From TrEMBL:
GO terms for molecular function: metal ion binding; pyrophosphatase activity. This is NUDIX hydrolase domain-like protein. PROSITE patterns: NUDIX, NUDIX_BOX. It comes from Artemisia annua. Belongs to the Nudix hydrolase family.
Amino acid sequence: MELKNMVAMVARSGRQLQRYDKGHRQVVGCIPYRIKSNKGNNLEDALEVLVISAQRKGKGMLFPKGGWESDESLKEAALRESVEEAGVFGTVEKILGKWHFKSKTHGSSYEGFMFPLLVKEQLECWPEKDIRQRVWVSVPKAKEVCQHSWMKEALDLLVSRLESSATKIDEESV
């Protein structure tokens, strides 16, 4: 059954299937994005990204992410987290990278993988709708409100990749 048809489900919980590598909990996330217009030459003006509120009040905004579980691929986990936390579907694109970081709250070590998600559909109801807010913002605003430096680095990589792709398309059409 398609993940899209199972959205009425509750978000996964528990850590029974959680992956670890050398003591680092493995997490995966997405930067949901859309191009709102192709007018002008500045990609950052046309690009919007979706940020969500952290589960704990007052802990800022971030991109959807969560544990990578043993019964799914990295891309499947990235899409699942985007559906559960932000209520968006789309195309999970080529990985942006891998980061190592520590939780400020728990002191735990993590290995985080981030992917771009070109959003195709935004759901009205999703598993964490009642505990998270989602907001489409500009790239500069996302950098301002995002609480994790490694996620800001991933966003910079996404913007560079999209700018590079736009440049290649422009050059090919000459």
